[in-house]
Amino acid sequence: THTRLFEKGKIGSLELSHRILMGSMHLGIEGDREQLNQVKAFYVERAKGEAALMITGGVAVLPEGSGDHMYCLTDDDHRHQLQDIVEAVHQAGGKIALQLQHNGRYAKSSETGLAPVAPSAIMSRITKETPKALTLEGIQEIKAAFIDGAVFAQSVGFDAVELMGSEGYLLNQFLSPLTNQRTDQYGGSFQNRMTLPLDIISGIREQVGQGFPVIYRMSGEDYMEGSTTREETQFFAKKLVEKGVDALNVGVGWHESKIPTVAASVPDAAFAHVVSAIRDAVDVPVIGANRIHTPDVAEEVLKQGQMDFVAPARPWLADAEFAKKAKAGDHAGLNLCISCNQQCLDHTLGHPPLPVGCLVNPKTGHEWEWSLEEKSHEVENVAVVGGGVAGLAVAKASAEQGNNVTVFEAKDHLGGHFYLASQIPSKSKFRETIRFYKTSLERLQVKINLATQPTIDELKNYDRVYLATGVVPYVPEQIKGVHLPHVVTYSDILTGKVALGKNIAIVGGGGIGSDVAHLIAQRNEVPGAVKHFFADYHIELDSSQRVNVTVVSRSVKAAKGIGPTTRWVLLSELRRLGVDLLKGYECKEITPEGLWVESQEDRQFIEADQVILCTGQIANAPLYQAIKDHVPTQLVGGSDDASELNAAKAIQQAYRLVYDH
Ligand code: SF4
User: Fold this and answer.
1) ipTM of the assembly?
2) Ligand 1 neighbourhood includes 389 CB (under 6 angstroms)
3) CATH number of the domain that 655 lies in?
4) Which cofactor does this sequence's record say it needs (predicted)?
5) Does residue 190 sit in the same domain as residue 233?
6) pLDDT value at position 267?
7) Average pLDDT value for residue range 231-242
8) Domain tally for the chain?
9) Which residues of 435-454 are buried (b: 16+ CB within 10 A; e: fewer)?
10) Closest C-alpha to ligand 1, atom 1
11) pLDDT above 80: residue 542
12) Cα of 292 from ligand 1 centre, angstroms
């Protein structure tokens, strides 16, 4: 039971019914009036899902500090839209804080149409632009804009205001010697570098009075060499409180930092100690978020006294009822975020940026369009063939619409390729998604037949058939020797059908090839506890059992197709684990001893006792032709389009087929 999570709490004068907030998230549709209903629906769903307090995505205080699809307070219409959002949230019984933001040197002139500004003219690795150093007038303008933003938030009824001062945005840039090299009263000593944020807080407090809650999102650790120290950070926290901040929300890592903070490979609650160090320094509530993805982890960090509130963000995309279900103890029914970033951060940071959705929750981003009103239509008997994620999603959507649904899965377990992928070290959480869909189907009384393949005659008894029979690995017949006995597919490895060799060559360096390389190379790692045990007893570890892995990638860009927030983490893992990446090479021939590979100017032989084909996949839909003329039949997921293995696309398609039907 989660006793700490569901204790009442307070931020300044604001009473909160429990300890789970929703952290700030950019949705990628803000500002566009046509999308206002969707923005409102997004927050209303989470208010109904019992978030104690939601924090809006960053709202720019000035246009040059703005970004793609951000509200900006200099735009009157945006102010009206924000007011509409507060009203909608309050009507739904929720609470919402406005986050004020200025991107500083993270702003892109291509998005704002204006030159970015920052404390000093230091190029940003994120935007590759050099901002203009702010003049003293410019700094005063920013100060006034933040103060005005807080006054606006109070005047239209927001329950609190949060200032974005972490992750390397403008206020954080003022604090750090890396980005603030000014020689006036705003730069130089740490005292001076704190001046702007502290002046803003004093100014806000003066204007909004004592009663209005002010949260400051500060950086607990920048994870940038030479940046603000731990002592300075704690000192800054104390100063913020002195000036009138009611709570500190502690972020970690700048966008430029080389330490992953949001990737699946980051252990649970890995940064709780950073939040805890701030909590030690102050006597106001402290909020933490990174890698606190489940109610259990949240309860634990509260119990340990590391923080007072948790403010997960992505978990609220995965399940709009995160707190409600946690409170009810409904763990089986909770759709957990799997930290894939595929539809959220990769969309926000993509070129061009795209609206945010969620791989595991197809309704995220479509709350308004699919207002969950059940349609009145005739109840159908529906057969879904294939229990991978596409099949599970189409079955769930169809059952939600009141149909009688039966799922047939040839294997003895659900999940298909998604289950296979869950063997990859950073993807083990994928099993949670399969668990969620399975629970949901059971609750919707969907009949699930495992290890069953329906006959055409059986399928003819249904009113509608969805074929979600997935994909099978593609075997490139043009490669000589591709059928030699030591040549296997990724599926043979992931299902455990064949044992691993010692000298392994992987043909194909895309997403699957890189993941399989990661899985195999990680087997060379001795678990931490074993390593410590051996070290304690001065026993040398035997490394003769190591597996060698070479990846032959046709593209010069390995792991192409993997999203920007994950790709660099995976590639650095592969490097660390000693995987050889041959980029720009094509496999021409496989022999019993290895394989010949060729680039434009080179040909070489790689010794290998096992060759794993990660050369793509082809659609698997053997029943389609036989059934389609008898029953309305639709292909879903990989069986429809095998060009890429994309669970997000498959799940979206499944929902579209049913909801737009
Ligand atoms: Fe989590 Fe992936 Fe959904 Fe983003 S897209 S919220 S990372 S499950």
Assistant:
1) 1.00
2) no
3) 3.40.50.720
4) FMN; [4Fe-4S] cluster
5) yes
6) 86
7) 97
8) 3
9) bbbbbbbeebebebeeebeb
10) 337
11) no
12) 13
CA of 323 to the centre of ligand 1 (A): 17
Q: Ligand 1 atom 6: the closest Cα is on which residue? A: 314
- Does position 262 have pLDDT exceeding 70, yes or no? yes
Is residue 512 located within the same domain as residue 632? no
- Ligand 1 centroid to residue 343 C-alpha, Å: 6
Q: Is 586 a domain residue? A: yes
Q: Which is the closest atom of ligand 1 to the Cα of 357?
A: 5
How far is the C-alpha of 254 from the C-alpha of 166, rounded, in Å? 7
Residue 290 φ/ψ region, left for φ over 0, alpha for ψ in the -120 to 50 degree band, beta for the rest: beta
Atom of ligand 1 nearest to the CA of 364: 3
The larger pLDDT score, comparing residue 47 to residue 644, is at 47
Closest Cα to atom 8 of ligand 1:
337
Same domain, 588 and 445: no
Check if the beta carbon of residue 315 is closer than 8 Å to that of residue 309: no
Ligand 1 contact, 356 CB (< 6 A): no
What digits encode the pLDDT tens for the residues 159-205?
A: 999 999 999 999 999 999 999 999 999 999 999 999 999 999 999 99
Whether residues 322 and 412 fall in one domain: no
Q: Domain for residue 505, yes or no?
A: yes
The values of phi and psi at residue 404, to 5°, are -90, 115
- Return the pLDDT at 532: 85
Residues of the domain holding 421:
381-471+618-659
Averaged pLDDT, 146-167: 98
* 59: in domain: yes
Least confident residue range of 36-40, 174-178, 184-188, 269-273: 269-273
Over range 637-646, report the average pLDDT. Answer: 88
For residue 210, the model assigns a pLDDT of 94
Amino acid at residue number 405: V
CA of 340 to the centre of ligand 1 (A): 5
Share of the chain above pLDDT 70, in %: 99
Give the position, in ligand 1's atom list, of the atom nearest the Cα of 433.
Answer: 8
Residue pair 597/606 in contact by the 8 Å Cβ criterion: yes
Quick check: is 18 in a domain? Answer: yes
647 lines ligand 1 (CB under 6 A): no
Taking the C-alpha atoms of residue 354 and residue 363, their distance in angstroms, rounded to an integer, is 16
Mean pLDDT to the nearest integer, 506-515: 94
Q: Active-site positions?
A: 169
Give the distance (Å) from ligand 1 centre to CA of residue 276. Answer: 26
Pocket of ligand 1 contains residue 360 by CB under 6 Å: yes
In this predicted model, which residue has the larger pLDDT, 375 or 11?
Answer: 11
H helices of 579-646, where? Answer: 624-627
Q: Are residue 80 and residue 196 in the same domain, yes or no?
A: yes
Statement: residue 619 has pLDDT above 60: yes
Closest ligand 1 atom to Cα of 339 = 7
Task: Give nearest CA residue, ligand 1 atom 3.
Answer: 358
- Phi, psi (5° rounding) for residue 118? -160, 170
Atom of ligand 1 nearest to the CA of 359: 5
Residue 402 has what pLDDT? 92
Instruction: Give distance in angstroms: CA of 634 to centre of ligand 1.
Output: 27
Q: Measured from the CB, is residue 27 less than 6 Å from ligand 1?
A: no
